[in-house]
Amino acid sequence: MGFKCGIVGLPNVGKSTLFNALTQTAAAQAANYPFCTIEPNVGDVAVPDPRLEMLTKIAGSKEIIPTRLTFVDIAGLVRGASKGEGLGNQFLANIRECDAIAHVVRCFVDGDITHVDGEVDPIRDIETIETELMLADLESLEKRIVALEKKAKGGDKDAKEIVDLMNRSLVLLREGQPARLAKIEPEERKLFAQLGLLSSKPVLYVCNVEEASADKGNEFSERVLARAAEEGAVAVVVSAQIESEIAVMPAAEQKDFLEAVGLEEPGLNRVIRAGYGLLHLITYFTVGPKEARAWTIEKGVKAPAAAGVIHTDFEKGFIRAETIAYDDYVACKGEAGAREAGKFRLEGKEYVVADGDVLHFRFAN
């Protein structure tokens, strides 16, 4: 189950610097975790999770295998991309293949790095990209809806449902609002996703600040954080320059460096976790002497589907899920202690897996 977060931004906002830091971090992780380079503009990184380290320590596991998230460095956008300006068509096609957008916003002033619009204004930059996505969606829907309306009038039930979703999106887009603000019922989400609307993707704003503001942000990042709060979106403050330095440092030196700049952890950890949360993903664990492993599922998934992430046979032949909550596993110092304390449970097909569950699946061959 792969999840992709596309990194977008105007030229000269620090997008590639941030992506390079991510991929360097991934390369450094290769010493401890499996890693492979997919393409030059794709980085596959481990999701930092201290719970996995704790489980490994308790179980004495020989290997740690974290869950992962893919970041895609998407070609820089310019005004007019929705009409094919710059690398517009490629840019929009790449976003369409992603599950979420990490929008890098320039929140620093540097006379040596030219801004495409002549001055730093993060809100204007956000609106430039958002407008291009909405214009592309508007054009796409208006081209497709006429034929579908004919089908719907002819009694095609599926076409009728799609047209309804299209119209809800068009109302927003024509008012200058992104499609992600449409009220979509849980049972409609799959069909809505099939519309392939760029502005329907959940957004994480990455405020790229100068080194001196890496710990607390600055006036520019405050404006982005306020906008994110209004939208119900997520925003993270990082210094891409600092992150690129941290990414190539030996682990032993990182702690002292982070303390010197007032950070508890690399900003990239927050970016990765925020991207993970943005996609409504949670983690469950399988733990044993051979390995402690994290698995990614979407929030609300039931036990059989969670088992299917490991292997399709586990889902087909699902019988029960041996379940221990993470806090109980730690408090009881492992599976044996959890059994003795009555914290070991057998859950059936309707059980909704909780974040942090330690699971072992029983299944029929």
SSE sequence, one letter per element? EHEHEEHEHHHEHEHHHEEHHEHHEE
Strand runs, count: 12
**Which term fits the overall shape?**
flat
Mean pLDDT: 87
What value does the Rg take, in angstroms? Answer: 23 Å
Cα distance, first to last residue?
Answer: 23 Å
* Helix count, DSSP H or I runs of 4 or more residues: 14
Largest sheet: 6 strands, mixed
- From the helix content, strand content and strand pairing, which structural class follows? alpha/beta
Beta-strand proportion? 15-25%
Helix coverage percent of residues?
A: 40-55%
Q: Uncertain runs with pLDDT below 50, 5 residues or more? A: 28-40
Overview of this structure, please?
This protein has 365 residues and is an alpha/beta fold. Helices cover 43% and strands 19% of the residues. A six-stranded mixed beta sheet has the order 2-4-1-5-6-7, with helices on both faces. A three-stranded mixed beta sheet has the order 3-9-8, with helices on both faces. A hairpin with a 3-residue loop joins strand 8 and strand 9. The chain starts with a strand and ends with a strand.
Quick structural summary:
With 365 residues, the protein is α/β, with parallel strands linked by helices. It contains 14 helices and twelve strands.
Task: List the SSEs and their pairings.
Layout: E1 4-8, H1 15-29, E2 42-46, H2 50-59, E3 63-65, E4 68-73, H3 88-96, E5 100-106, H4 122-153, H5 157-174, H6 189-193, E6 203-208, H7 219-231, E7 234-238, H8 240-247, H9 251-260, H10 267-278, E8 281-287, E9 291-298, H11 303-310, H12 312-316, E10 318-324, H13 326-331, H14 335-340, E11 345-347, E12 358-363
Parallel strand pairs: 1-4, 1-5, 3-9, 5-6, 6-7
Antiparallel strand pairs: 2-4, 8-9, 10-11, 10-12
Helix pairs in contact: 1-8, 4-5
